[in-house]
UniProtKB/TrEMBL annotation:
Residues making up the signal peptide according to the UniProt record: 1-21
Recorded coiled-coil stretches: none
Keywords: Signal
Sequence segments annotated as region (Disordered): 28-55, 101-140
Lineage: Bacteria, Bacillati, Actinomycetota, Actinomycetes, Kitasatosporales
Residues passing through the membrane, by range: none
Identification of the protein by name: Secreted protein
Keyword Ligase carried by entry: no
Compositionally biased residues, Low complexity: 33-42
Amino acid sequence: MRSLRGPWRPLLAAGLTTALALGLTACDGDTPAGGPRPAAGGKETGDHGGAGAEDLAGRLEEYGIDADRWKEGAWKDWSRDDWLREAGDFVNPVIKGLWKPGRMRDAEDPGRTVTTKDTAAGRGGSDPAPRAVPAEREKTPYHDHAAPVGKVFFDAPTGPMVCSATVVKDPRNPGRSNLVWTAGHCVHAGKEGGWYRNIAFVPSYNDLGKDAAGLAAAAPHESAPYGIWWADWAATSNEWIGQGAGSGGGGAPYDYAVLHVRPESGARSLEETVGNALEVDFRAPGTERLGTLGAWGYPAGPPYDGLLMHRCADRPGRLSPAPGQPSMYRIGCTMTGGSSGGGWFRRDGGKTLLVSNTSIGPADNTWLAGPQLGRQAERLLDMMSRQYGGS
């Protein structure tokens, strides 16, 4: 088994579809998990205009959008249910207190989105399946060893779910990035559905690596040492939205996404708060030139419980999920669902670079595959930096 010792340690040293998340502050309450939440001062349904509409207008103007023209002004009369049903954009209002420590612990892995039929590995263009590489627990505290890595929490129709993600550099805002890299299936259901709700990022989640009992008694800063960061903008590929499926589908080679986040409280950028962000390598080098790749994440499917950060290291091979599609990187790794979206890293000239993210794996959890990040992925990050990075 190859570990991430030596030059890998520590990680800390080392066509696009966009979505608008209108960051209203919603009231705490007893709304069931995953259900609609009221805008500030509003009702569960039927809240037309009022404080909510004023807040929306302010946020639209903040992003340079003419509030009177957006959606032809019809949004002013939308209820909260109308927003969730009618808005083609990603609506992700900040709901302070929603992601409490207990709700984070209870969030499940989106297992169906990280598994695929084993027959996909036998198609032309794929290298032999790698041997399984047992995942190792990351050392604690996580903020000293892998601070840019964290968990993504979101609500799907079946309830609260989790993925993994990485803080990445913003090319137009050096040292002040608010961008997070993850998988497309962690923000959008693909051809089977739409945008997920209540998406938030927690870097270095469960910083001290406590078990369930210990985390239940832990202080809030131990479960979220850098706070909770809400996605106010999101982007993924058109291929994932149009072709992505529970088994990866035709969207798997394009299964990546970028979030622009804001803190639930505070004003500093994510990169300043965490202390680091990783550069993304968009050269899509061939497997023969990559050397060893390391994958980080929070596996939540059995035998893992999603509370602890793990890592794998292996030399990658190629996986061709379907004829005529780009090949994906594949490494041996026993991480399960919940590690989806977690970054894959390489060392190059003394720097740690993100080169892929966890997308799919087999039902027996012996390997993981991730997309090659080329020019299309680079355009996605560039667009997020250009349009929203400075906000």
